[in-house]
Amino acid sequence: MAEFLPEPRPDEMDLLMVLSALADPHRLRIALALAKAPDAVLPCTAFELPVTKATRTHHFRILREAGVIRQYDHGNGRSNQLRLADLRQRFPGILTTLLAG
Amino acid sequence: MAEFLPEPRPDEMDLLMVLSALADPHRLRIALALAKAPDAVLPCTAFELPVTKATRTHHFRILREAGVIRQYDHGNGRSNQLRLADLRQRFPGILTTLLAG
């Protein structure tokens, strides 16, 4: 059974952490892809990032710890989903900004 | 007479550059202060930043080059204003996000 990995509650999310998480070309690409398909739950391997597996794992972790994405651990891999409702509640406007970029 | 310093046009603004400009505690503090008083034109010295003058100049330059602020050069100093209309046009939602943070 898939398990959630630890993530901040909406009231624990910090604007500077979210901005820092998004201020990287690979992480912004991941967030944009998820923002364009907000109901999707996608495995890390679905994102064609030109980085090592360890670096890819790192980028997803930064996004999760900032509260941008939720990660499910399947044992043999992780899948990812945008925290749409939480982001909208905590930082209204941020998805509009991302999708306008 | 005060002169504008070079800045990107709205269509030249880049989301990653804007996020990177804001993803720093000092620069976010400057942007938030200006976002809370969007009509204000404030000298660099109005922001109490615990950094050297050169570092302060650097932070304002990063914000200007990303398109977040407009800078006026008075010869003996610079003043700063949020590019409210341009930000709203190019990245709708971003001010709402900042002020919710």
The helix tally of chain A amounts to 5
Q: How many separate structural domains of chain A?
A: 1
CATH topology value of chain A: Arc Repressor Mutant, subunit A
* CATH classification, class level of chain A: Mainly Alpha
Oligomer: homodimer
Binned strand content of chain A: 5-15%
Quick check: average pLDDT of chain A? 94
Assign the structural class of chain A, choosing from mainly alpha, mainly beta, alpha/beta, alpha+beta, or little secondary structure.
alpha+beta
Tell me about this structure.
The structure is a homodimer of 101-residue chains. Chain A has 101 residues and is α+β, with helices and mostly antiparallel strands. Chain A has a single domain, classed as Winged helix-like DNA-binding domain superfamily/Winged helix DNA-binding domain (Arc Repressor Mutant, subunit A, Orthogonal Bundle), CATH 1.10.10. Chain A is built from five helices and four strands; from the N terminus they run E-H-H-E-H-E-E-H-H. A four-stranded antiparallel sheet of chain A has the order 1-3-4-2. In chain A, helix 2 packs across helix 3. In chain A, 31% of the residues are buried. The interface between A and B is medium-sized, with 20 and 21 residues.
